[in-house]
Amino acid sequence: MPILGTSQTIPCCPATGTLKKEGIRDRGENQKDLKKKLDGSCVSGNRNGMEKIKCDTEAVDSSIKSIFSERGDVDFAEQLWCKMKCVSSYQELIACFTLVLESRECGEIQPWIHHGSGSLLSKLIQQSYHGKMEAVSLTGITPVQMLLEIGLDKMKKDYVSFFIGQELATLTSLDCFISTSVDLQEQVHCVQKLHHMLEIMVSCTVLLQFKHESLFPWTQICIKYYRENPPDEKHVFQLPVSSALVKKFYPDHPEVWKVDISSGHGPKEVKTTWQVSTNPPVEHMMSNNTGLLSDSTVNAGIEEKMYFITVVKCSQVHFR
User: Fold this and answer.
1) What's the 3-state SS for 216-243?
2) Angle at the Cα of 55 from the Cα atoms of 62 and 10, rounded to 5 degrees
3) What is the mean pLDDT of residues 116-141?
């Protein structure tokens, strides 16, 4: 058992798939719909090997669904996205926006919009507060871009609400993910980054029961990485945690142990690594007991477990 004062790391990465319940599936599909509208592609998950973690997946998805239940400050454009995200044709899209703009121009609706919303529709509605709306031609790619913009605005506000509400980040630290000064493709990537961070934090909360004291620094690690890197579902974050917090996860008889020992300083520093495993590196070691260690030497009276030396390294010795 490692000393409780030492530090451990938890390897963690976002893993999207198709075993998604309604709340998170909608959010994942929203992102895929945005990408599809931009570049004609759609990402699908792989079901192979997912059945064994179905219960864990459902638990995480249920938690995310509850997180993204309707916020109390959803504005008109966000509500419109929830209705229009399922439009089935370009003509229907134009008809919806035409109805909204004409209704507002005639004063038939009095929509409320968040201050600072970056979508074209939000800007037009805010202009109408002062009695005049800029004329917009709903032709070409304009209606599609307008739909993308209100969808991105909605999802950004949802993610920001979670991270700030859970006191895991500040608005300033999230600014780079919610900027509207970059193109739509980059904004979609930013939403994917926010979703990856959310899945990691929720998984660590629901499945491992970690608290704010661990989640806060982990969020900062994810934010720092994604400020400089594109969204990557395969990237493994090494999240530091004290041994005291993960003691309950240690098995009674670990199958692999690794010890790193350092001594000296500068050019005289020596690093030695030992790794032992319950699985032999080669089959013939089972018969001659070469290189074996037994925990019976330190745990008398319990069932004997054999360990095989699988790795030996020393920085001052070069093996050939």
Assistant:
1) HHHHHHHHHHHHHCCCCCCCCEEEEEEH
2) 90
3) 90
Residues 43, 291: Cα–Cα separation, whole Å: 48
As a whole number, the mean pLDDT across the chain is 79
Residue 46 has pLDDT above 50, yes or no: no
Coil/strand/helix, residue 211: coil
Single out the residue of 222, 216, 262 nearest to residue 241, CA to CA. Answer: 216
Beta strands in the chain (DSSP E): 7-12, 237-242, 256-263, 270-277, 292-294, 306-314
Kindly report the number of other CB atoms within 10 A of residue 236's CB atom: 10
Q: Which residue has the tokens 């070069």?
A: 318
* Residues, the chain: 320
Separation of alpha carbons 149 and 84, rounded Å: 12
End-to-end CA distance of the chain: 33
- The arithmetic mean of pLDDT across residues 26-31, rounded, is 54
Find the Cα–Cα–Cα–Cα dihedral 119, 125, 131, 134, rounded to 10°: 40
The residues, ordered by sequence, that sit 6+ positions from 317 with a Cβ below 8 Å of its Cβ are none
Beta bridge partners, 262, equal 271
120-140 b/e with 16+ CB inside 10 Å = b?
bbbbbbbebeeeebeeeeeee
- Tokens for 153, please give them: 């605005």
In this structure, are residues 56 and 21 in contact, taking their beta carbons and an 8 Å threshold? Answer: no
Q: Global pTM? A: 0.69
222 and 12 Cβ atoms separated by less than 8 Å: no
Query: Are 136 and 120 spatial neighbours (Cβ–Cβ below 8 Å)?
Result: yes
Residue with tokens 């709340």: 23
pLDDT tens sequence across 265-310: 777 888 888 788 877 777 666 655 555 566 554 455 555 667 777 7
Q: Are 273 and 312 in contact (CB under 8 A)?
A: yes
Q: How many whole angstroms separate alpha carbon 29 and alpha carbon 26?
A: 5
Which one-letter amino acid corresponds to residue 150? I
